[in-house]
From TrEMBL:
This is Fasciclin domain-containing protein. It comes from the Bacteria. PROSITE patterns: FAS1, PROKAR_LIPOPROTEIN. SUPFAM superfamilies: FAS1 domain (SSF82153). InterPro entries: Adhesion/Biosynth-related, FAS1_dom_sf, FAS1_domain. Signal peptide: none annotated. It comes from Arcicella lustrica. Residues 37-174, 178-339 form the FAS1 domain.
Length: 553
């Protein structure tokens, strides 16, 4: 039985709308349920549609296992598609060698069952039997929108359930990639300067290798075209080498040109859809762990577009039309701008935990009045244990809080939130003292609750209580005990800073801060900011004024 589903589930539709340049038309998904017929038998059952692909399966010798017990996904081109393909290559099905037939079948089969619910704008979650990922997307036609694969074929019938897997019907034959990342780059004359840089640094060879181990095979290259390099002042390779190669030997891992090229290579096969699902990606720079950041702004994919210490650093855009090129060992992208390595020294980070997009978009509340996030709210960079107790954005008004706001979090054991997780701003590699800066508030029904902090799973050594006041001691005495007043004037004992411990940040990146309640129940837990201060810098000064400015006192 066939039925027409006129809409995708909301999460998938949201992702596709965010990542694809397309209209708002629906995607047609046809679901068909069979009896006990397995994949190969199903094709044979409808020779008027699929006999040509069945013949290629016969030629490959894979008919037995595709009709045996198992769990597979097959993307089967219909007869029209196969005939067009055979005409294109000038052969009949009988003239295909066994190896050619096997290659055709393997690029169309995945060893697991995948429905269209698992498709997204990017690679499918598993490789084909050929050992390459398939790139999925959406295209618009006169009859609405449909899924595409490898930009080579549309899915015209989907989610056909067979006895040993899932069948999707294509209007084209998929063709595997035949070039490595290095070969793809070299084949494009507009990458000639970057190709020479790959060769001079030795990365051409690694990008020209197809590792038999799938776990180590795939890489991603973000190439800069001659046009982009010319805009940055490099019209030939000699100019690029003169600017970056400080040692004169680009093959040295410590050479700046080597680092520049390595910074454009990422681990794994990362299509645009994969790049924007994470905020940062480890590069091949070997002198120390180095990341490139990523974000989606509207429909634009940006690299190294960061807000660092309150200041936006403009990044570069990845070209949608020139990116997502599948190679035998990964993916090739093209950037629309020149970018170099961001190397940062340890610096004081005063992390305002209320500085996140979802509250800042609520212009009638942010900086004006309190807003309680409704049950069921999802925030990109803040997670909490109990969905029934979301945080509250508190406008502090006349209270002495940085930028006159703070985040109030219902913590408690066993009720309310056992933990809260927040993604930090970018923190440069280095050793830091971590301070929890909170607005102490004690009410008549306050209870004692003890919390600990952790960075990337490493628990900090000092527990603390949100309801504790700053002791009446001198600044030096307070610091020796792990206390300070972070607001100005330095006499406000409710503006409490507690030292959580010292952390060694290994990689310049955004990190995960986790607050955990280890005993006690609810109390007003008001997080104003979290400070990361290099261990060799002044921990007490400057202090904050309510308007957000700093003052040395």
């Amino acid at each position: 039985m066939k039925k027409l589903i006129q809409s995708l589930t909301l999460p998938l539709l949201g992702l596709l709308l965010g990542l694809s340049i397309m209209s708002c038309s629906d995607i047609t998904i046809v679901e068909t349920t069979t009896g006990d017929a397995n994949l190969y038998s199903y094709l044979q059952k409808y020779p008027e549609k699929y006999s040509d692909f069945a013949s290629i399966i016969d030629k490959s010798g894979y008919n037995s296992f595709l009709d045996a017990y198992g769990a597979y996904t097959m993307f089967a081109p219909n007869n029209t598609a196969v005939k067009a393909y055979l005409t294109q290559i000038g052969k009949t099905a009988d003239q295909l060698t066994k190896e050619e037939a096997q290659g055709i079948v393997k690029i169309h089969v995945i060893r697991d069952t995948l429905t269209t619910n698992s498709f997204k704008d990017g690679k499918l979650p598993l490789v084909t039997m050929y050992g390459q990922y398939l790139l999925s997307g959406v295209t618009n036609g006169t009859n609405g929108s449909s899924y595409t694969l490898n930009r080579q074929a549309n899915i015209v019938e989907s989610n056909i359930k067979t006895g040993n897997g899932m069948l999707h019907i294509l209007d084209g034959v998929l063709k595997p990639a035949t070039k490595t990342i290095a070969q793809l780059t070299e084949a494009n004359p507009d990458y000639s300067i970057f190709t020479q840089a790959l060769k001079e640094t030795g990365y051409y060879d690694s990008l020209n290798t197809v590792n038999e181990n799938l776990d180590k095979r795939f890489m991603t290259l973000v190439a800069e075209s001659n046009t982009v390099l010319a805009q940055a002042g490099f019209t030939n390779y000699a100019q690029l080498k003169a600017r970056y190669s400080k040692s004169g030997n680009p093959k040295l891992k410590s050479d700046s040109l080597n680092i520049f090229v390595a910074y454009h290579i990422l681990d794994g096969a990362k299509y645009l859809g994969d790049i924007i699902t994470a905020t940062s990606h480890i590069t091949k720079v070997s002198t120390e762990p180095t990341v490139v950041s990523s974000k989606l702004e509207g429909q634009t994919v940006l690299l190294n577009d960061d807000i660092f210490n309150g200041v936006r650093e403009m990044g570069v855009e990845l070209s949608r039309t020139l990116s997502d090129n599948t190679a035998t060992n990964g993916v090739l992208h093209s950037t629309l701008g020149h970018y170099g390595v961001k190397l940062r020294l340890p610096i004081r980070i005063d992390w305002d935990v209320c500085d996140f997009p979802e509250i800042k978009k609520l212009s009638s509340y942010y900086g004006k009045r309190t807003y309680g996030f409704p049950v069921g709210t999802v925030l990109n960079d803040i997670k909490w244990a109990n969905a029934s107790f979301p945080p509250t954005y508190v406008y502090a008004g006349s209270e002495n809080a940085a930028k006159r706001d703070y985040l109030q979090v219902p913590m408690g054991v066993p009720s309310r939130n056992l933990w809260l997780e927040m993604r930090t701003p970018i923190i440069p590699k280095g050793k830091y003292k971590v301070w929890m800066c909170y607005r102490r508030q004690r009410t008549s029904n306050s209870f004692t609750i003890t919390c600990t902090g952790a960075i990337d799973g490493e628990t900090l050594t000092r527990p603390f209580l949100f309801i504790d006041q700053v002791p009446n001691l001198s600044s030096g005495e307070l610091e020796s005990l792990g206390w300070k007043i972070y607001m100005s004037p330095g006499t406000d004992i409710n503006a409490a800073g507690r030292l959580l411990g010292t952390i060694d940040i290994k990689t310049t990146d955004r990190h995960l801060f986790r607050l955990t309640a280890i005993n006690g129940t609810h109390s007003p837990n008001n997080i104003d900011m979290i400070q990361f201060i290099p261990i060799d810098q002044n921990q007490l000064s400057p202090r904050h004024l309510p308007d957000g400015t700093l003052i040395a006192n």
